[in-house]
């Protein structure tokens, strides 16, 4: 059994956005008050964190119950997914605990370039790999298109009887890129807008309508939507979601 806690569910700018006067930002509270994306996955024996957002310190104080993650999986090296790495490293150093930072080799290379002072620092160690483990769950990284922003990785968790996937940043994925995730019983996926009107060449994440089309086309049993911008007003928009689809929000918990 796994226990998931969404530490953050916003897009790169957070909600409320800085200096934004839209109705969602001006009244951001409860489900519409969102930190940058991060997900804690906890088993009976261990735990791991997916991505370390710039809001890590606030998230840790609110949700971690004093327990430092044993491993951290990084989906890609954009600031909203790695900006808290320095705070995590300080935490590990001063608490004298050792946490692995796991991601495919080229992502680890980027992290080592951006945080050279952490390479030999006590407390964390970098693990360049496309696979990992959490108890009897097999974990694998799979590259997906991230539109204008290049590419990222989705992460699949698999054991006998259940498969679930976490893909916070994905857009215009090919059939080959989607294939590893299509047998998932649950997909947690990023959808920053309900319907994004920006030029498709400048976009980087699916919108809600596009993901609902994918769910129907591939018969995905359940989807949870995360990486939500200020365009998403959960109390308003959740009424329009079909059965088997829901929005995540900061502090949302789920047992698998």
Question: What radius of gyration results from the CA coordinates?
Answer: 17 Å
Question: Overall 3D geometry?
Answer: globular
Query: What CATH first level would be assigned?
Result: Alpha Beta
Topology-level CATH name:
Metallo-beta-lactamase, Chain A
Spatial strand arrangement across the major sheet = 6-5-4-3-2-1-14
Organism: Kroppenstedtia guangzhouensis
Protein name: Hydrolase
GO molecular function: hydrolase activity
InterPro entries: Metallo-B-lactamas, RibonucZ/Hydroxyglut_hydro
Give a description of the structure:
22% of the residues lie in helices and 28% in strands. It has 256 residues and is of the alpha/beta class. Strand 9 and strand 10 form a beta hairpin. The longest helix has 11 residues. It holds the Pfam family Lactamase_B_2. GO terms for molecular function: hydrolase activity. Keywords: Hydrolase. This is Hydrolase.
Short précis:
This protein is of the alpha/beta class. It is built from 8 helices and 14 strands. Helix content is 22%, strand content 28%.
Topology:
Layout: E1 3-8, H1 23-26, E2 38-42, E3 47-50, H2 56-63, E4 71-73, H3 79-82, H4 85-95, E5 99-103, H5 105-114, E6 124-128, E7 131-134, E8 137-145, E9 151-159, E10 162-167, H6 175-178, E11 186-190, H7 208-218, E12 223-226, H8 234-237, E13 245-247, E14 253-255
Parallel strand pairs: 3-4, 4-5, 5-6, 10-11, 11-12, 12-13
Antiparallel strand pairs: 1-2, 1-14, 2-3, 7-8, 8-9, 9-10
